[in-house]
Amino acid sequence: xxxxxxxxxxxxxxxxxxxxxxxxxxxxxxxxxxxxxxxxxxxxxxxxxxxxxxxxxxxxxxxxxxxxxxxxxxxxxxxxxxxxxxxxxxxxxxxxxxxxxxxxxxxxxxxxxxxxxxxxxxxxxxxxxxxxxxxxxxxxxxxxxxxxxxxxxxxxxxxxxxxxxxxxxxxxxxxxxxxxxxxxxxxxxxxxxxxxxxxxxxxxxxxxxxxxxxxxxxxxxxxxxxxxxxxxxxxxxxxxxxxxxxxxxxxxxxxxxxxxxxxxxxxxxxxxxxxxxxxxxxxxxxxxxxxxxxxxxxxxxxxxxxxxxxxxxxxxxxxxxxxxxxxxxx
Amino acid sequence: xxxxxxxxxxxxxxxxxxxxxxxxxxxxxxxxxxxxxxxxxxxxxxxxxxxxxxxxxxxxxxxxxxxxxxxxxxxxxxxxxxxxxxxxxxxxxxxxxxxxxxxxxxxxxxxxxxxxxxxxxxxxxxxxxxxxxxxxxxxxxxxxxxxxxxxxxxxxxxxxxxxxxxxxxxxxxxxxxxxxxxxxxxxxxxxxxxxxxxxxxxxxxxxxxxxxxxxxxxxxxxxxxxxxxxxxxxxxxxxxxxxxxxxxxxxxxxxxxxxxxxxxxxxxxxxxxxxxxxxxxxxxxxxxxxxxxxxxxxxxxxxxxxxxxxxxxxxxxxxxxxxxxxxxxxxxxxxxxxxxxxxxxxxxxxxxxxxxxxxxxxxxxxxxxxxxxxxxxxxxxxxxxxxxxxxxxxxxxxxxxxxxxxxxxxxxxxxxxxxxxxxxxxxxxxxxxxxxxxxxxxx
Lengths: 330, 443
Description:
The structure holds 2 protein chains of 2 kinds. Chain A is an all-alpha fold. Chain A is 59% helix and 1% strand. Chain A has 15 helices and 2 strands. The mean pLDDT of chain A is 92. Chain B is globular. Chain B starts with 22 loop residues before the first strand and ends with a helix. The longest helix of chain B is centred in the C-terminal third of the chain and has 17 residues, at 423-439. The chains are: A mainly alpha, B alpha/beta.
């Protein structure tokens, strides 16, 4: 018996699961750094987040949608890790479970599951938690090394909170700088913040992996980081006493985690390179506007969610330049 | 930096198993079946009847209409019937059945091996000869060659492009031809240049054939105006528009032909067929077919007469292996699945590929994760994910606006999709529906 089907008769080696696992691999360096600085809490938060994301996806698929179970495709695993990376490492378990519920059940499954959600599930979960549990979500443990306990960690402010607070009190940059960590500390992740966002070096190693494995292209991360650098650079040049320098803005908070891992979420980002650049610049600009002029010290999550909303519009109107379009007919 | 088309394309495993195997001339089978439709356009009109004796090279069917091609008898013998025969896809086509007797050739065909350099025919005579000899595009598209040589009034051609890319995995028939019949191909190119009245010809060859590149480069030094260009190995480098873009940096507009940007593209195999027709007076009655597959006993490049049953050809290659799951007419990216191994070899058959059952399966379809890989590999810069959705939803007007008819069905999107989605299946459906609606003036 011969099989017949239309061409092509061969298929590449890529699969959804492989892509997702490569994202997980890219996130491992950041997880290691996180455990190194924040101890057991980082492991507990990640484990709870991942397990509850997988469980909620399983329950919805089995009992509500009654569809084949696809939790092994890796997408809920990635959501779980990213959600955890956006949380402080001393956050109580029940809050994580609530956040996972919002991320998976409300932000993903209600829209039809993988591929259909307009907003990044992990970020929807994170923002829901930020609004519902503002104290827990903004009490950051100070990096004290492997021995750090879970709920009893010593807490302190993030660099962005120090900056915002200082400026609010009318201090100038030269006064605030002394309280801020050095760029080297920020590069290595020896600062307060969400557990996965702090170590620039680890996130950049993961970025190289994602590019090497062709999981993502450079367009979104570079346009996010580039637009933040340009925008904050202009503000800094205009008034260095009231504005932090661009390097600080890039290394502080969730810029790298957001630009490399959250904004590049396939489902919620544009399909065409031109649109990716526009989307990335939008995220960068909104982030800086929130950080500099808004009430929150950090704005990456909001910026990505706001730009997520524009993605369907971009996909509808921003088209690749079709082959053979611009040439004059002979 | 090697030349190539700028964006899109994929890198399927090359599997050129037969690249090192010289062309082997197979004996003539006992019976042949000659389909009347071996080319794009109207089927040829049979000129023989049951019981007629035919000689090798005798015209047995005449091309009728503007786009059509003559067909010659590849064997000598007796016409047993004129009937329909199932082609390799199982579709019935009118055909001439011939029982082989003896080895009688039509007079005037030069069967000698010596190279004939001197081109005696004029431009018009060459074009006429190509039509008379039934020459069609040998790369698989089978477009009658003489039409491409007639430049429409008001258009100009300044460069002839020869396609020696052979970007499909497995296929090596052009590769072997370029190695073994290099001089003949170059004379053929010179003939095509004379027919088109151009001074310049560029031969594009993918860089995975360094032996063919260096061989032709050396030979081309003594041919005026012919240059050889290595191209980056990237599928579909051999697609006409992608090849023109790579070699002369011109983009053939949507819905137009290479002549609209001053080029004409012919296959390397066609150049050889043109040489034989013009210099040797030999019509198109045989071709090189790559028979390949990982479990095949005797894969190779076989020179066979048109009309030879596939089963006979496969027998010569060691028989169909037990683990065969799928047989493909052409390459694995754009070829057609074979359902009928009794079907005959036709002019456009560049290869027969046997895929083991373990590789002959479709991926399980999972939801589109909008990874945009289909968009980034599309060499025509279309959005396959969108075209599939539009077709699924029956939104053909929008599909037309999104240029669904530009799709050349190279299969890069389906090949690359991590979710295993049958993008090209839907795009084909959408494309044919759009074309049909446009004909009916509904859109």
